[in-house]
Amino acid sequence: MLDLKKLISDFFQSVNVNQIDIYNEFSLQHELGIYLRAVLPTYKVQFERNVTFFAMDKRETIKKEIDISIFSEDKKEKYAVELKYPLNGQYPEQMYSFVKDIRFMEQLKELGFNKTAAVALVSDKPFYEGKHNSGIYRFFRDEKSVYGEVYKPTGQNNHYDFVVLSGKHDFEWVNLNQGRKFYIVEI
């Protein structure tokens, strides 16, 4: 079974060593995919695959497409990776998107994926430190753990919009070049 967390960590190490230019979420997705294809020649690595491609039961998932799918030819081994690289502020909204990605990865694991991972790469300090450490901020700044009911932090109907995580997911912010940080939540 693949160690997704190690593969993704090794990719970020490669970004530092080889000075790979990651300038938006699209470039992150493609550079990681290229890297995975090189180190996993016996697996298929595909982008934006619909969940239904894997012919699992038809339970509803929070999202429909997987950023990066890694699978064996016979699909007996399958892995999923969701990526975020927000560049336009909106810190609480983006943090909520991080939580939704984690829930999506939980759902795919429940549907039979061997392992899944939610990855966030950030350039701005407010994602991991700041004055406000309550609400959604506490998960990413103080606790570095996401769990339970997480409510959408903004909007008129935010008390109706929430995600319920089935597990507790601890992570750490890891330094990357150019003042960036990332985390990997493997499920």
From TrEMBL:
Protein name: PD-(D/E)XK nuclease superfamily protein
Organism, scientific name: Paenibacillus plantiphilus
